[in-house]
Each structure stands twice: as C-alpha cells, then as structure tokens.
Design goal:
Layout (H helix, E strand, L loop, with lengths): L1 E9 L3 H8 L5 H4 L3 E5 L9 E4 L7 E3 L2 E6 L3 E8 L5 E11 L5 E10 L3 H29 L8
Antiparallel strand pairs: 1-8, 2-3, 3-4, 5-6, 6-7, 7-8
C-alpha cells in the first residue's frame, strides 16, 4: 500500500469549494492535473477521468464513485485492468475550519502488485500533480466571489 496526501487551507467556505470541485465542465479552464471528468457524481456511477501528471504520460481511466457527501467529501476507485494489479482510491475532503477557511485534503491510497514498481512516479509526478491542482483551486476560490475563471 502507498498513500499520497496533500492539503491546503483556502479562504472560502466548503460550499464554494464544493461548487468548483464538482463543476467538471470547468476543469479544463483551471485544473492542471485532472484535466477532464465526465459523468454524474453519484455513488456507484462510473465516471471518465483524464489525468495529466507533471512530466508523465496522460492517463485515462473509468473509476467508480464510492462516496459523495455534499460539501464534505467525494471519492472514487480506479483500477488498471483487474483488481489487485494497480488500484487507486482518490479522495477529496473538505474540512470547515470555522474561521472562514476550509482545509482541502486531496489524497490517494494505492494498492496492488505494481505499487512498489511505481513508487518513484507516485512520490514525484503524482504528488506534484496534487499540489499544482490544490494551488490552482486556492487561486480560483480566493480570486473572485463566484470562484469561476474569467469572472
């Protein structure tokens, strides 16, 4: 097992951040890491996700949404080929700090027989992808009242 965990404090409510995180149509305008999500965010649904890790090959996958708690959390489970080869549970958590800020935690738990062979890629490229997405999310949320690029 391998976990990557990043977090960032954003001067915005969980409601505002949730609105931006779940507006998948806008991802190409601001998100450097998860450049595309298609599908409906509801537990049990299959969505289509395209990732662009820094200095690595783009990846497309079709994870299953595991949990959706509005304004708090969503997570999905993606797999390469069959269960146990390389599985990744991607998690977004929003924690209201009760001081007009929210801590956004983005993490992923990787399991499967390929994890030891991909450890360096995960520690470097994937972590940088999480951090760049977090940074851009913070900029958008704090830049304007709607949190929508171009407004």
């Amino acid at each position: 097992m391998k976990e990557i965990r990043t977090e960032i404090v954003i001067k915005a409510s969980p409601v505002k951040i949730w609105k931006i995180l779940t507006n998948f149509e806008r991802y190409p305008t601001w998100n450097p890491f998860i450049i595309s999500i298609q599908g409906t965010l509801a537990a049990g649904n299959i969505i289509q996700v395209e990732l662009a890790p820094p200095d690595a090959k783009r990846m497309k996958m079709k994870p299953r949404v595991l949990r959706v708690i509005p304004n708090q959390e969503f997570r999905w489970l993606g797999r390469i080929l069959i269960p146990g080869i390389f599985d990744g549970e991607h998690i977004f958590e929003l924690r209201d700090n009760k001081n007009e800020t929210t801590t956004v935690i983005q993490r992923e738990i990787f399991t499967g027989i390929l994890v030891p062979f991909l450890k360096k890629l995960l520690d470097d490229n994937t972590r940088r992808g999480f951090e760049s997405m977090n940074s851009e999310l913070k900029k958008i949320c704090e830049a304007n009242s709607e949190g929508i690029p171009g407004n």
